[in-house]
Amino acid sequence: MQLSSLPKSAATLVQKLRPRDGRLLVLLLAGILSAALNFAFSDALKTLEERLGVLGWTLTTDDTIEQRITLVTIDEKSLAEVGPWPWPRQELARLVNAIDEAGAQLQIHDVFLAEPKDGDAELVAALQSSRGAVLAQVPILQSEQTARVGAMSHAVSGVSCSAQVSAASSGISLPSTQNYIASHAGLSGISKGHITPIVASDGSIRQFPALICVDGMPYPALAISALLEATNSVDWNASIRADTSFFGPAFRLQLDAYPGLNIPLDRQGNIRISYKEAPDNFRAVSASDVMSGNIEPGLFENTWVLVGATALSMGDIVPTPYSGATPGVELQARILGSLLDAQMPYTPRSANWLLGFISLCIAMVLLKLAAAPGRVSAYGLPIAGVVFPLLVLTLHIQLLSSSEVWMGWLFPALYSLLAASLLLLLEQSRVRVERSRVYSNLSSYLPLDVAKEIAYTLPSSAINAKRCDVTLLSADLRNFAAFSEARPPEESAAVLHFFFVRATEIVEQHGGRVHEFKGDSVLAVWDGHHREAALQALRAAQCMQQAIDQDMLMPQSVSHLEPLALGIGIEQGPVLIGSIGPAHRRSHSLLGDTVTITLRVQELTEELAQPILIGECAARQLSDLKLISQGSYLLSGLRIPHTLFAPAISESMPVKNKSARRMPPRLKVVAGNGD
After folding, report:
1. Do residues 71 and 286 touch, judged by C-beta distance below 8 A?
2. What confidence tens digit (pLDDT) does each residue in 264-321 have?
3. What whole-number distance in Å separates Cα of residue 186 and Cα of residue 298?
4. How confident is the model at residue 654 (pLDDT cuts 50, 70, 90)?
């Protein structure tokens, strides 16, 4: 985004403010834009935040083999040997018995059996005779599908599903639905847990509801049900409490049967899935090998066994940071492992405040950088725009890898990028405005081409001048020194200002340019020493005489002073034009005999009583005009005489009739006694 894309009035306002106020306004604008972008593109930005945020896990992966949990997979090999899914109940009973005989403490089946079939009694007997077993059920969320299949069972007590009661007591909002797919009622005696994840907009699964309300009853997740089943507790009682610590999660789920375990929840009652464990950490055995006894002795001894599908044909595949096709049973293993370690990742309830504080710190640093002089600001702001997002992301990665704290990073990163970019554009715009102002001021003191050359070149102590042919005009206010002596300085300055302004207008109207104002005189230049340049200089001189005589010279002269008059000299020839002097104090100069001759010709206008005198070089270019020779004169300071010319009356511009001026009254003060 560029500053020029802002409304013109806003950009103008920023430029008119004091630099610090303008920078503060830009920082505030960056915050508003960051919030607006987060709102408008929430899904895309959330996906970006999540995919880069998990680097805290994937860059520091724990490669320790998980010894407490073993996966029994219904893979392609099992389907080929046992048959397509769903398997007969007798085969499932055989799998349950094989796992129990291998020494597993608990069986967690990531499958559900919605329809009653032959062999259910044998399967139920196998599950009940095992050391412990849990089946899955699926409340339907994030879908318009209407289904009520099977029978939901094994809800927890102590947690209300009433939105009003829940919000009033803790402020949490548990997901709720009336649709589900569960095992049939014949399996209601077996513990259950739901396997319904929260699917993000990009299809990934990052969060899992701890409890889902179905018909007003809260049903726990499969991993939580496994914990409760392992305690052999008859009463599944739980409670949700708001965490009051600044760095704690929004809420904590506590199980009466599992004291000391506090499961962190967000405001929607979700658990964040940890991806710290590498996928290869989870030991997996094909279900067909378990049923045939082809497993390593003691593999299941004192472990919890997760049974689930990994075959692509069964469709239980989800994308994760490690793979685009990860079996859902692996997610259950990750949740269960985090619960057993009592290290569940969570977002602090104060995360927004912390991110806002980080953004404020970034704003303060950017404000200092923007106010820094010279290259610190020019290079510091773009570097900060890249470094700060990386630093915020690094902080998030460090907190996640060391403390399982998901802080988030996108808002301060986006804010720092926008703020640095806008501040850089503001400073560049301000510099361009200031440079333009300096250039405008410089060009008001020097000719435009000279000002441009000076503005874009570095100062040097060397002579930087070139020879060229020009036509010069020197115009001088006669008697101005005496006028200044007799009048206040403000009045003298006003007269001189008017003269300079009108003279400059006339010179520029006739294609020339003012080289310098010196004292009460003007030196103007026309490029070239051809007839057109000489003619333009003469026309400018005549217009100048007319304008000054009509508009500036007073009808009455100041008492005891000769009236102001204008003398103009014109000549052509070669000059040396350029900059001289030390690098810290340069002077733009016009040098050569032509300059001296023009100035001396102008000085003779008073002695010869001619308002305009033309040197012989310029006069040669004006041979077709009526010029009157004034004779040959040895100009002051020169050794060669020069013939001077004055334009004939017919060649002069019409001027105001001086005889029509009101002459000052001839009054004479006579000394007397007042009679």
Report:
1. no
2. 999 999 999 999 999 999 999 999 999 999 999 889 998 999 999 998 878 788 888 9
3. 33
4. very low
Instruction: Give the C-alpha separation, 335 to 344, whole Å.
Output: 8
Longest pairwise C-alpha distance within the chain: 151
CATH of domain 460-579+587-654: 3.30.70.1230
- Residue written as token pair 């009054």: 667
Residue with tokens 């302004």: 501
For the chain, which residues make up each domain, given as ranges?
3-40+350-441, 62-154+179-233+273-341, 460-579+587-654
Secondary structure (DSSP) of 192-244 = EEE---EE-TTS-EEEEESEEEETTEEEEBHHHHHHHHHTT-SS-BEEEEE--
Whole-number Å distance between alpha carbons of 424 and 381: 6
Beta bridge partners of 348: none
Examine residue 321 and say whether the peptide bond preceding it is cis (omega within 30 degrees of 0): no
For 563-603, the pLDDT digits (tens) are 788 999 999 999 998 778 787 777 778 888 999 999 999 99
The DSSP call for residue 519 is T
CB of 614 closer than 8 Å to CB of 571:
yes
The span from the CA of 83 to the CA of 85, in Å, is 7
